[in-house]
Amino acid sequence: MFDSDLGRDEGAVMSRRRAFLLTSVSALAGMILWSVRMPRFVQAKASEKSSEEVTIVEFSNSGERLKTVHVSKVVKTQEEWRKQLSRGAFAITRQADTEFAYSGEYWNLHEKGLYRCVCCDNALFSSDTKFESGTGWPSFWQPIKPENVVSRIVRINGQPEALTC
Fold first, then answer.
1. pTM score
2. If residue 28 lies in a helix (H) or strand (E), which one and from where to where?
3. What average pLDDT does range 53-78 have in this prediction?
4. Which backbone phi and psi does 69 adopt, to 5 degrees?
5. What is the Cα 12 distance to its own chain's centre?
6. Do residues 21 and 32 touch, judged by C-beta distance below 8 A?
7. CA–CA separation, 115 and 97 (whole Å)
8. Is a pLDDT exceeding 80 seen at residue 161?
9. Does 16 score more than 50 pLDDT?
10. Are 66 and 56 in contact (CB under 8 A)?
11. DSSP 59-121
């Protein structure tokens, strides 16, 4: 009924145990190094044109479209962003980092409402367009208004990845 190591070659058992321990320790060390020393491939940079304007569509908290407005682009130094945002939010929004799958507060949220930018409070997505992607991150099939979201392709380690801001 139960598999036992009794009667087996003790050398083979020790070899498997060592391989298991080495693999486990290596994986743990890799995760720690990745989280602590992850290279910052993409840095969000402040624009030199502080008077640059963008067009956005404003929404009430209930999801009602209010009006289209022209506003100055939010421009802050990295230090100003650090003061405004939590450590995790800063890494995600300003350095193109990501949180671990299934760990964020919104991945499994099913309440009706709007998802707003943590940096500027602009409405980005409606819960009506949220879907279960199986990735562990909140996923949406379209922004609340195309004007409110900027998508671009960036290269990380030579590979193209979509980045939505």
1. 0.61
2. helix 10-37
3. 91
4. -130, 155
5. 43
6. no
7. 19
8. no
9. yes
10. no
11. E-TTS-EEEEEEEEPP---HHHHHHHS-HHHHHHHHH---PPTT-SSSTT---SSEEE-TTT-
| Whether pLDDT at 64 is above 50 | yes
Do residues 93 and 119 touch, judged by C-beta distance below 8 A?
A: yes
Q: What is the dihedral of CA 125, 129, 133, 139, to 10 degrees?
A: 0
pLDDT, average across residues 78-96: 91
Q: Determine the Cα–Cα distance for residues 117 and 155; give it in Å rounded to an integer.
A: 23
Asked if 97 and 42 count as a contact pair (C-beta separation under 8 A), the reply is no
Q: Within 13 Å of residue 23, how many CA atoms lie on the same side as its CB? A: 6
Average pLDDT estimate for 48-73: 84
Cα–Cα distance measured from residue 28 to residue 126, given in angstroms and rounded to the nearest whole number: 37
> Distance (Å, rounded) from C-alpha 13 to C-alpha 4?
11
Torsion of CA 76, 82, 88, 94, to 10 degrees: 30
